[in-house]
Amino acid sequence: MQSESREPILKTNLRAIFILVISIVLISLLLFRNLFFKSTYLLKSFGESSVDPEIAFTNNKPTFLEFYAEWCEVCKEMAPQVSAFKDEYEKDINFVFLNVDNQKWSNYIQKFSVNGIPQVNLFDRKGNLISTFIGKQNEIKIRESINNLEKEEKRYEKVNNGEFSTIQENKNNKVGPRSHG
Question: 16 catalytic, yes or no?
């Protein structure tokens, strides 16, 4: 008889513990959402805060141009570092962020031979390409290149890293005979 009366109490206790655990997890996600989703949020905000490339190449300021995608894990990993560069240098340098999934930027993707992301191109104030970084990069190396943008003597530098994402073909925006595009 006693075992029968313990079962409902046990079920009630398990249910209460389960609800408590789920509540703690949900509250944690809400409180720490910026920590968990910060990189994705930063990538989305890059496109919104970007200087238009046409303006950037004609306003007599050096330009930091990044090609990225929101699905790119390396882009997400580098987003806090890039955001810190933007916060530090945005008064002196144009920051342009072009999402490779947006067909609007396909001419720039072709012009700068983007086939791996993130790709960062640094331009001097006259619009001359000074450095290209493909893949995950060391913060010190990019900072050094940014600081060298104002020096007179410049030679082109390309830095590749094995950690990058290959651009995925976006089939949603293909133009064909029946697409009316």
Answer: no
